[in-house]
Design brief:
- This protein has about 180 residues and is mainly α.
- It has a single domain (about 15-175), classed as Up-down Bundle (Fumarate Reductase Cytochrome B subunit), CATH 1.20.950.
- The chain is built from six helices and two strands.
- Strands 1-2 form a two-stranded antiparallel sheet.
- Strand 1 (about 120) and strand 2 (about 125) form a beta hairpin.
- Bound molecules: protoporphyrin IX containing FE (2 copies).
- One protoporphyrin IX containing FE binds near residues 100 and 107.
């Protein structure tokens, strides 16, 4: 039977489902950001891809919190990272986690302190304010830039998994997440 929890030689079903499910959702989220960045306003494809950005971004924020908690609960059982490259991989994963939290969080903070109010899947979460709270707005100016940095770090992560581990080292690192 497949293990739900992680093991030293393999990530469990919950971690693998979160990893690959979120990878697919992040691809859709970056597609929507790319359409916002690259296509002209009033373009139908841009509108279609942009229409889900806030809802999917909020879903990813909730999923990353869940994934972080699950990772912490499994920290003693997870595959271990040894040597200098192992330590570098841990640093890389921590950077990905940090950005996966910070990127949506700065926008949600701005929504919490803003004048427009905020609903998630039709559920009102933050009601509109008369005046915006200034300090909640400033970090959101970095949302797009930090989002693109996260995209670059993810591309590096994918290159490490496929080129370094699979093609050069020919080790079993990819298998433990597959
Ligand atoms: C992990 C989740 C998210 C990622 C990876 C992400 C990524 C991005 C990126 C890369 C851009 C820049 C697009 C451009 O250059 O035109 C962007 C823009 C934007 N995002 Fe997100 N986003 C996420 C979540 C959210 C959430 C939760 C909200 C709202 C609550 C949001 C609202 C916006 C808005 C309004 C813009 C356009 C203005 C700006 O660039 O700040 N995003 N997002
Ligand atoms: C084609 C796409 C991807 C491939 C081939 C891939 C591959 C892998 C592999 C093999 C591991 C296990 C590493 C190890 O055991 O040392 C891993 C872990 C990880 N990956 Fe990916 N990955 C992909 C996409 C993504 C994306 C899109 C994200 C984030 C948005 C991500 C974030 C992480 C994180 C944070 C870990 C650490 C383990 C955890 O806590 O889940 N990966 N990835």
């Amino acid at each position: 039977m497949t293990d739900l929890t992680d093991r030293p030689d393999r990530y469990g079903l919950v971690s693998r489902t979160l990893h690959w499910g979120m990878a697919a959702l992040f691809a859709a989220q970056f597609l929507s950001a790319a359409a916002h960045w690259g296509l002209p306003r009033e373009n139908a494809l841009r509108e279609a891809l942009w229409s889900y950005h806030v809802a999917l971004g909020t879903t990813l924020f909730l999923l990353v919190l869940l994934r972080g908690l699950w990772g912490l609960a499994n920290i003693q059982k997870r595959p271990a990272y040894s040597g200098a490259t192992g330590q570098a991989a841990v640093v890389g994963h921590v950077v990905i986690y940090a950005l996966m939290v910070i990127v949506p969080a700065v926008r949600l903070l701005a929504a919490a302190g803003g004048t427009r109010g905020f609903s998630y899947l039709g559920i009102p979460v933050f009601s509109p304010r008369e005046t915006a709270i200034a300090w909640t707005q400033a970090p959101a100016e970095w949302h797009g830039e930090l989002g693109w940095i996260l995209g670059l770090v993810i591309l590096g992560h994918i290159a490490m998994a496929i080129v370094w581990h699979r093609l050069i080292q020919r080790d079993h690192v990819l298998e433990r997440m597959a």
